[in-house]
Amino acid sequence: MSLTKMSLWRIAVPLLLAVTVIVVVASKPGREPAPSAAVAPALMASHGTVPAATSIPRLVDLGADKCIPCKAMAPILIELRTKYAGRMQVDFIDVWKNPGAGDPYNIRAIPTQVFFDGSGKELTRHEGFISKEDILATWKRYGFDFGPAGVPTPRS
């Protein structure tokens, strides 16, 4: 090996080891970043597993408060929960903090959104980020129109 290659190895190997140690230490449980001002999904976490069916349609988002697409969905879910209170139930379940809570939903990826009708029957599901507009379009496709007035009712 030439002198230049040896010098490079003497620099690269310790540098690689240092980076590895930093990554391992930073990813240890209990090392939480400082809370941010952003709205986190945990603020609206629903605990437990499958609640009893209500007479209103229900959207369940299964994710984690540290998952990037899940974080992006948090303000959307909070807005839907607030704006359509009494007309649509919106729940968030953090499957990293409570792994067993996701079992009844048979999810394969997070985030996963499960759409239920008022009797608790699953209508459809979506994996990954979904916009507010796409959520409302999905509800509309299944006959629930969240227009300005009244409780949505499925088409006959």
Detail the topology: elements first, then pairings.
Blueprint: H1 3-26, E1 58-63, H2 68-83, E2 89-94, E3 112-116, E4 122-127, H3 132-141
Parallel strand pairs: 1-2
Antiparallel strand pairs: 1-3, 3-4
Q: Can you tell me about this structure?
A:
With 156 residues, the chain is an alpha+beta fold. The chain has two domains: 1-29; 41-141, Glutaredoxin. The chain contains three helices and four strands. The chain has a four-stranded mixed beta sheet with strand order 2-1-3-4, with helices on one face. Strand 3 (112-116) and strand 4 (122-127) form a beta hairpin. The longest helix is centred in the first third of the chain and has 24 residues, at 3-26. The protein starts with a helix and ends in a 15-residue tail after the last helix. The model is unreliable at 27-45 and 47-51 (pLDDT under 50).
